[in-house]
């Protein structure tokens, strides 16, 4: 396993007790020789994580990130600061103010469109300080952006880009933060890119279908609020539309409760047996088999003929490495991007960057392999 860090480099992880963050830290540790500083206000929650990391390479530090002096002391002289503490609308401000002052690189996996917009406005400040700040480096946004760039690269012109995420049943591990995030992305208006400019759409409306998983057919998708329409239009300003769509796998057969089930049986979407089995499993607290994926569909032209390209993850659920659950896909993508952020030459870049501004799809796929992802799980392509 190659590494671009020395055993004297320190990487600080702020908010290290979070579940998705723990996956990122564990996988990053396998691909890097860096010393790991696990910073959190609740250091007791870090003890289990410490036991899973290489002996002697990780230490813990109690940190209130809103304490400016403590934050500066924690990040001074480090090779990289990784922010995993949310909500980013509150936490990114103090850390992004501290990193340029300390002249240390920064990376996060922010998935909030409002805070992403606010952080992009700090580009000149980061440039003046001479440090790179890499934002939205998780699964979505993050890996979804790389799939989009990869898909568009197979077309001569692009008309529309759909970024799609299927989320499976993660009980009993689902936490309050996940539920809060679902409520946030499913209520009110959301940002899309249409007709060459930002536009607001109603959230959680039925948007369309996409072949999200294997041979299981088309999955109904809903419009959601994620930052991809904030950053990707910088590369594809004429694309119309560009949207983020999501489906919740285990709710597909329970969309409108009982009346919805009856309608779905009558319309042939599912059988009476499937509905009864789902109700029985739910009553017993038995989770539905996990299905999850990231998919990007770009529609445009190739050689002056209409064409589409689909890029998606290949495997999910039991036996999968990268798409075992939300924590694994987000943490694995973030770990790979941390490895890339520490590569020689990256420190020469200055400013605030979304992923598509500094990373290339093939380099990202190689980094995923570095943190343990089997090559055959990373991406598959369908095209016309």
Low-confidence segments: 250-256
CA gyration radius, whole angstroms: 21 Å
User: Helices and strands, in N-to-C order?
Assistant: EHEHEHEHEHHEHEHEEEEHEHHEEHEHHE
Question: Largest sheet, described in full?
Answer: 7 strands, parallel
Tally of discrete structural domains? 2
Helicity level: 25-40%
- CATH architecture label name of the largest domain: 3-Layer(aba) Sandwich
Shape verdict: globular
Features:
384 residues, alpha/beta, Rossmann fold, Dihydrodipicolinate Reductase, domain 2, 2 domains, seven-stranded parallel sheet, seven-stranded mixed sheet
Quick summary of this structure?
This protein is an alpha/beta fold and 384 residues long.
Question: Can you walk through the features of this model?
Answer:
It holds the Pfam family Sacchrp_dh_NADP. This is Saccharopine dehydrogenase-domain-containing protein. Residues 11-131 form the Saccharopine dehydrogenase NADP binding domain. The chain has helices at 19-31, 47-51, 68-75, 88-102, 113-120, 123-129, 143-152, 176-185, 228-231, 257-267, 272-283, 326-341, 355-358, 361-370, and strands at residues 10-14, 35-40, 58-62, 80-83, 106-108, 132-134, 157-167, 189-194, 197-202, 206-210, 219-223, 242-248, 293-302, 305-312, 351-353, 380-383. Mean pLDDT is 86; it is low at 250-256. It is of the alpha/beta class and 384 residues long. It is built from 14 helices and 16 strands. α1 (19-31) crosses α12 (326-341), α3 packs across α4 (88-102) and α12 packs across α14.
